[in-house]
Hints:
By secondary structure, the chain is mainly α. 70% of the residues lie in helices and 0% in strands.
Amino acid sequence: xxxxxxxxxxxxxxxxxxxxxxxxxxxxxxxxxxxxxxxxxxxxxxxxxxxxxxxxxxxxxxxxxxxxxxxxxxxxxxxxxxxxxxxxxxxxxxxxxxxxxxxxxxxxxxxxxxxxxxxxxxxxxxxxxxxxxxxxxxxxxxxxxxxxxxxxxxxxxxxxxxxxxxxxxxxxxxxxxxxxxxxxxxxxxxxxxxxxxxxxxxxxxxxxxxxxxxxxxxxxxxxxxxxxxxxxxxxxxxxxxxxxxxxxxxxxxxxxxxxxxxxxxxxxxxxxxxxxxxxxxxxxxxxxxxxxxxxxxxxxxxxxxxxxxxxxxxxxxxxxxxxxxxxxxxxxxxxxxxxx
Length: 340
């Protein structure tokens, strides 16, 4: 066209990024054709199931199928591994587990180790949850204040959550063992060596302590998020009315923080009931059966004992699963009631 200068010809070669992008473009075009065909066949609304299908397959293979197999094992007996070779015994495994003179006295039960595990798990969970919730709440309140180094202390309290439970147990076992760091300090101060992991009372105390130390940061974070979500003008109004701090905490903070507290309590209960790795590495369930937990009983009955009883372990795990479902249902019911 007259008056319009032609564009200069470029001789620049394609960049490396462009060359690297060619395989990606080709792959996307290859995937595009079957996806368009599926969309025409199924419709746009049903394409969501296509993307969910891989996850559903993995869930069925690694979650749903093991649950079904476990339930089948719980109603069968014998030492055989394959279900087709195991005789059907109905509720025999459950009857054996619950055959007790008194459920409060494990020594009167046919399977006393199971009920010792239940009793230990109950004591562990009750003491751990109460201490965990109180300490997490106190820590969250302090970290929510305008204190110097607040970000540093938040990171310090959350750091143990990032560690593997096995690593946590090994660290504390090194500290608490007979010739460990803590006993070295006690002896250095003129005291006598204490067998923390050999005496039953000390072993349970340290199992609870280590679990709190390892997981408190996670629950503190949940409560801290709840505290930060409370509008500041509420506290400003209370301060203008000269309301005492303890009354502000009881009448304002706790009610507004209650949904977060429900989550913390139920999650701590579920984690406490499922406790295994930390206590197993720290004490091995000992001394004797002083720290034997229900999950450790299931593991040893199925895999570690000289006589492996897969059916009994499966029945115990079904009982545990029912308890966890009840706790989850409790959380949902309390959350819905509070939301309503």
